[in-house]
Amino acid sequence: MTKIAIIEDDAVINQMYRMKFEAAGFHVEVADNGVRGVAMVAAFKPDIILLDIGMPEMQGDEALAEIRKDPASKNTPVIILTNLGEEEAPKTLRGLGIHSYIVKADLTPRQVVARVKDALGLTEE
Question: Cβ neighbours of residue 36 under 8 Å, at least 6 residues apart?
């Protein structure tokens, strides 16, 4: 089963994406801030990570920098899922190897699931 880590501080959004990805056959783990997200990724070893930028305790770019230090997650695909426009995002993200950047308001959860499947090379049924 494909594993996805969702690191997002909004509980409603976390729950919505958990349900969508579980319905699509993914094993899902969620974290509500960057510190917990870094620990979760180290333990869970996901196939892909959905990462918010603006979070308490540790911002998304800081969390991703920590995630990239671990050899096990150094090359794990990361999709930024945020409400910040790409031009507003921290410049440090560019050097951290993100797969793609999604503004939450621009896509439905179903479209986000499709983007994740595409990033993993999974075919749609």
Answer: 7, 57
Domains in the chain, start-ordered, CATH in brackets?
Answer: 3-120 (3.40.50.2300)
**78-82 β-sheet, strand order:** 27-31, 3-7, 48-51, 78-82, 100-103
Task: Give exposure, 20-56, as e/b (b: 16+ Cβ within 10 Å).
Answer: bbeebebebbbbbbbbbbbebbeebebbbbbbbbbbe
Query: Would you say residue 89 has pLDDT above 70?
Result: no
Mind listing the pLDDT tens digit for each residue in 29-68? 999 999 999 999 999 999 999 999 989 889 999 999 999 9
pTM, 2 dp:
0.92
